[in-house]
Amino acid sequence: MKTIWTNARLLDPASGTDAPGGVLVEGGIIIDAGPHLAETPSGADAVQDCDGRCLAPGLVDLRVKTGEPGEEHRETLASASEAAVAGGVTSMVVMPDTNPVIDDVALVEFVMRRGAATARNRVYAAGALTVGLQGEAIAEIGLMQEAGAVFFTNADAPVADPSVMKRALAYAAGRQAVVFAKPEDPALVGSGVMNSGALAARMGLSGMGRDAEWTAASRDLILAEGAGAKLVLDQASTARTVRLVEDAAARGVAAACTVAAHHLYFNELDVGDYLTYCKTSPPFRAEEDRLALVDGVARGAIQAVVSAHDPQPPEEKRLPFAEAAFGAAGLETTLSAMTSLVHNEQLTMLQALRPITCGPADLIGLKAGRLAKGAPADLIVFDPDAPWLCDREKLRSRSTNSPFDGRRLEGRVLKTVVGGEAVYSA
User: Fold this and answer.
1) Within 19-96, where are the H helices?
2) Euclidean distance between CA atoms 15 and 94, whole angstroms
3) Cα(60)–Cα(90) distance, integer angstroms
4) pLDDT tens digits, 127-142
C-alpha cells in the first residue's frame, strides 16, 4: 500500500530541503519525497494530511543508556523506546555499560533481539571497547561488529592506559570500525562533581576541570591519527575540545565529536540550589563554552547531538549533590532543546535538525536520518511552536531525572513513524 504524507513543511537536512512538500511511502520504504508532493498525487492508497506541520526524518540518537540487561528497575529497552518515540527518536544506540557489560557476541545479539521484540523504534547495540569496560584487555571487536554492533566505546570509563587505547584503535582501524571515546582524564577529574571554577568554590563543591577533557581529547586524537582509526569524541563540552577535533580533521584524521543536548541548553549556573537533576558528566560548563558549542553546531563542526539519556532512580538523585549519581534523562527533550535554539535565532531549523538526523546516521553508516528514495520510512511530524511544560512525573522513562523538569519548552512531536507504521501519536 502506498501512503502519502502531504501538506507538510518538508525538512530534510541531508538535501537542504525546507519547503512545502510530502513523502510517499510503500512497504516501509520512502519511494519518493520532495516539494513536488505538496499535493496528493494519483495512485496513493492512503493520505496522511500533515496540516502544514513539519515533516522530518526520525531522530537518530547515538547515546542511550538502559538498565537492560541487569538493572531493569532503571530502564528497559521497552520503556526507553516509549520515551524515545514520544521524543521523535526512531533509531537509538544502546551503550554497553549494562550488567553484564555488552562485551561479547551473545550480548550484542541479545540487545538486538530484545529490541526487535519489545521496542517501538529501531535499537542498535554499541560494543564495549575493552573486556568488562576495565580498560585492560581489548574486547573482540571483529566478532561483535559481525553480530551487529555499530560502534565501540568504553562508555563512561575512559581507557586510562594509552598503550591499551592505541592497540584498540589499531584493531578497530583494521576492521573499519568506529570508536567512540569520552574525552576525560580520570586522574584529573578526581572527585569533581561540577564544573571547576568560582561557582564551584562558592558552593563548596569539588570541580571537574576543563583540562581533564582537553588532555584526554588530545591524547586520543593523536593515537587515532597514528592508527588511522575513525574516532568520535563523545560528549564534548568545551570550545577547545571542538577546536581540537577540527584541527585533527584538517590534518586528515577521521575525527568527529558529539555533544549532549543539555550542554547546548544549560550552563553551570543552572545547578542553582544544588539541583542534582543537573548533575551530569561532563558537567554543565560556563556560558562561553555553551555558546561555543551552539556555534559548533551551526558551523557543522559538531556532527551529532545526543540525548545522553542516563536514567537514574530517585534514590540515587535525592542525595546531597556530592553524593548523588551523575546522569540525566533526555530522550523526550532532545528535539525541544534544539528547537529552543531556533526560537532564540541561534540556529536555523535545518542546522538544528542535521545533528540529530543525518549527522549521527552518517557517523556510523546508517541509512536513516534522511528523506530520500530507498531510505527507511522513519518520520516525525512535529510542531516547533507548540508550548509544553516538562513535568518529570509525566515523562515515559522509568527514571525521571530530567534537568528540564519545570521548564517551559517549545516544540512537540505529534506523530512518530517507524518503517511506515505510526508508533506514537500525541
Assistant:
1) 77-86
2) 28
3) 6
4) 999 999 999 999 999 9
Residue appearing with cell numbers 573486556: 131
* 238: amino acid identity, one letter: T
Q: What pTM was computed for the model? A: 0.97
Which residues lie closer than 8 Å to 210 by C-beta, 6 or more apart? 195, 196, 237, 238, 240, 285, 289
The neighbour count for residue 182, using CB atoms within 10 Å, is 23
Residue numbers in the chain where pLDDT is lower than 50 = none
Compute the distance between CA of residue 103 and CA of residue 28 in angstroms, rounded to an integer. 32
Q: How far apart are CA 344 and CA 337, in angstroms?
A: 11
- Give one DSSP letter per residue of 288-351, joined into a string: HHHHHHHHHHHHT-S-EEE--B----HHHHSS-TTTSPP-B--TTTHHHHHHHHHHTTSS-HHH
From 361, 154, 375, 160, select the one nearest 256 (Cα to Cα): 361
Q: Cis bond leading into 186, ω under 30°? A: no
| CA dihedral of residues 217, 222, 227, 228 (deg, nearest 10) | 80
| Secondary structure of residue 401 in the 3-state scheme | coil
Summary count for the chain: helices (H), strands (E): 14, 19
Q: Could you tell me if 262 and 403 are in contact, meaning their C-beta atoms sit under 8 angstroms apart?
A: yes
Report the SS3 class of residue 10: strand
Residue given cell 516539494 in the structure block: 35
The Cα–Cα gap between 21 and 34 comes to: 5
The predicted pLDDT at position 277 comes to 97
Q: Please, where are the H alpha helices in 123-197?
A: 141-147, 162-174, 186-189
Kindly tell me the burial class for residue 244, based on how many C-beta atoms sit within 10 Å of its own C-beta (0-12, 13-18, 19 or more): buried
DSSP codes joined into one string, 205-224: --EE-HHHHHHHHHHHHHHH
